[in-house]
Amino acid sequence: MSHAEKEMVLDVRHLRTEFGLAERPLVAVDDVSFQVRTGEILGLVGESGSGKSITLRSILGIARPRGRVSGEILWKGRDLVPLDEAALRRVRGREIAMIFQEPMSSLNPLLTVGLQISENLAAHTELDAKARKARAIELLDMVGIPAARNRLGDYPHEFSGGMRQRVMIAIALASNPQLLLADEPTTALDVTIQDQILRLIQALSRDLGMAVILVTHDMGVVAETCDRVAVMYGGRLCETGPTADVIGDARHPYSLGLLRSIPRDVAPRTPLYSIPGAPPALNALPAGCAFTARCPVAGPECLDVRPSLEAAGRQRQVACHHREEALAHFSAREAAQ
Ligand SMILES: Nc1ncnc2c1ncn2[C@@H]1O[C@H](COP(=O)(O)OP(=O)(O)O)[C@@H](O)[C@H]1O
Ligand code: SF4
Ligand SMILES: [Mg+2]
């Protein structure tokens, strides 16, 4: 199925999440729009503090009560933003599930894994106790836990880091979610286990038609796992598009810097911290482009005029006033190397 033929399940429009005083807000997510389709994995990539986790939490309604969320979060056509807690609870953990970087933070150390899956099944399905047990075994089996039947009575600490992450995915899958929000789910794991978990998420997305938003700060993870990518900086999107296009032919100075500063023929898991300068503090962002202070091709208007995300070829968008200069700058630099 082509990209356009897949059903759009999530349509986020002008999402804004702010904290602190209304008259002097800290804007963690600023006018962010993107879509996710059935069976598609969208990578949300950017340095630490760029607003990735808050974006996911805003979708689930768990950036509240302190975070103020506005814009539209159209989930299968229905806007989640105005929903109250009770209505959100029917969506959260059921139609939309989330997994985190550190499984121990969302697993209960005092309950067996079998019981935790069973509880989730009881909350979200009509299955009786016997059917829940059978389904729990099936889920652990599906995420690749060997001898699943014998592990139901084990506690989280009896699993290795990679296996715990699988358990967390099994719990998230218990309700048959149509969207999985995965917040740096492999960052704490070693590279081999990381790959296994990413392949698992890919297979689940493909086989179950599940949409996935995968948050990461690692372009290598994006390259190997995601269908499309959205690059985030200072709470805003700078560039979106199909993964191969964005990685092979980046247009925004931030993405160009991220990608071109990685030497060729280097192992794919190169973190993003190679751009000169530091990510901006949210309370010190200019009115214009968030990247101004670190951008090699910034002009005087960049400080005051905010660039909007505009179409840049097939299924691609870029937010920059100086795209041509950016391309010229980075290709000249490359030629000189
Ligand atoms: N409850 C909160 N109150 C105030 N600021 C917050 C809160 N939660 C997150 N932030 C700020 O929002 C910004 C984005 O955070 P986050 O989404 O966690 O970044 P990322 O996941 O990309 O590393 C950070 O600067 C963080 O300090
Ligand atoms: S050229 Fe201007 S608008 Fe484009 S990334 Fe640099 S600072 Fe932002
Ligand atoms: Mg985060």
Automatic annotation (TrEMBL):
Main location: membrane
Protein topology in the membrane: Peripheral membrane protein
Protein name as it appears in the record: Methionine ABC transporter ATP-binding protein
Keywords attached to this entry: Amino-acid transport, ATP-binding, Cell membrane, Membrane, Nucleotide-binding, Transport
GO molecular function annotations of the record: ATP binding; ATP hydrolysis activity
SUPFAM superfamilies recorded: P-loop containing nucleoside triphosphate hydrolases
PROSITE patterns the record matches: ABC_TRANSPORTER_1 (PS00211), ABC_TRANSPORTER_2 (PS50893)
Domain ABC transporter: 10-259
One Gene Ontology cellular component: plasma membrane
Family to which the UniProt record says this protein belongs: Belongs to the ABC transporter superfamily.
InterPro entries linked to this entry: AAA+_ATPase, ABC_Ni/Peptide_Import, ABC_transporter-like_ATP-bd, ABC_transporter-like_CS, Oligopep_ABC_C, P-loop_NTPase
Function: Probably part of a binding-protein-dependent transport system y4tOPQRS for a peptide. Probably responsible for energy coupling to the transport system.
